Every structure is written in structure tokens, then in C-alpha cells.
Amino acid sequence: MLIGHQIAYRNVASKYYHCKSEDLQLAFEDFTAILERYQYHPTGDMFFALMSDPTEDEMIVEIFLPIQESVFRSIEGEQIYFQSYYAIKPMIMTRIKDHFIQQAQDKYWELFSFIHQHKFKQRTPIFIEYKQTRNNQSYIEMGVGIHPER
């Protein structure tokens, strides 16, 4: 567990989705397609916040996608939010390097156990960032914002 982690991005568009966990990739693709259709250029640094209990049948997620553009005009019929700067700090974070589906459940509960053991207060939902090493190996960073004082 890493204490003091942060998420910080510029020019971030976001959208809420209600979906089953197995349909999450479709939500990512839908959001990317909407932005590209309106000539926004995603940077590829997609991440999302898990807004609901992961044991529920349907999840509520807010998907975030930084874009190259610094000005965003609303898209009719779509509830897309834009922030010129998006930051969450401080956070505690853990990494998942393989067996993503099984490890995600385990790491989720480890984060909450760590918060409880160290008497931190949760400040945000769980954030999940998809990353790649320079050798193109995928991994996931899963973190949660905390109040700095215990």
C-alpha cells in the first residue's frame, strides 16, 4: 500500500455510466467514441471512479478521459462534464499486475481494511487507473482519497 499517492490530470471530460462489470469495456468504448465524434482528442489516460458497491449486480461508474483540448463545448443529448484540472490527493494506492479480475476484488477490500486499521477517513470513491510500463505491460492502480489527518 502506498500512502501519499495522487491523481492529477488536465482537461478532463467525464461521464457517468450504469453497467454490469462485464460491460465496462463497452462503456469505455462508448465514451471514447462520443468524444472522437465531436472532434475531441483523448490522450489515452482513461481512469474511472467506482461510485457503487462492487458486489451489486449493476455498477455506477464515472469514467474520466483527459483530452488535448482546453476548451469544451457541451454535447447535446450527452451529460458530459469537463474540468480544466482534476486532482485527488492525498490517496492510498495499491497496484494489480496480473489476474486483474480476481485481484481487483481482493485489493478493493485491502484498501478499506488499510483505511480502517490506520484510522484514516475515506474522502473519495475508489479510483482505478489503467497504466502501461515502458515495456507495454499492463497494470492497474487502485486508490482512494483520504483525509490527511487521522
Keywords, please?
150 residues; alpha+beta
Short description:
The chain has 150 residues and is α+β, with helices and mostly antiparallel strands. 21% of the residues lie in helices and 44% in strands.
Question: Could you explain the architecture of this structure?
Answer:
A six-stranded antiparallel beta barrel has the order 1-3-2-5-6-4. It folds into two domains: 7-84, Alpha-Beta Plaits, CATH 3.30.70; 88-146, no CATH class. It is globular. The protein is α+β, with helices and mostly antiparallel strands. The mean pLDDT is 90. It contains two helices and six strands, in the order βαβββαββ.
Number of strand elements: 6
Q: What is the structural class?
A: alpha+beta
Q: What count of domains describes the coordinates?
A: 2
Q: Describe the strand arrangement of the main beta sheet, using strand numbers.
A: 1-3-2-5-6-4
**Per DSSP, what share of the residues sits in E-state strands of 2 or more residues?**
35-45%
What share of residues is helical?
A: 10-25%
Q: Give the overall average pLDDT.
A: 90
| Rg over alpha carbons | 16 Å
CATH class of the largest domain: Alpha Beta
What CATH architecture of the largest domain do you see? Answer: 2-Layer Sandwich
- Give the N-to-C terminal Cα separation: 17 Å
CATH topology of the largest domain: Alpha-Beta Plaits
What is the global morphology?
A: globular
Q: Provide the low-confidence segments as ranges.
A: none
What summary fits the major beta sheet? 6 strands, antiparallel, barrel
Order of helices and strands: EHEEEHEE
DSSP summary: helix tally: 2
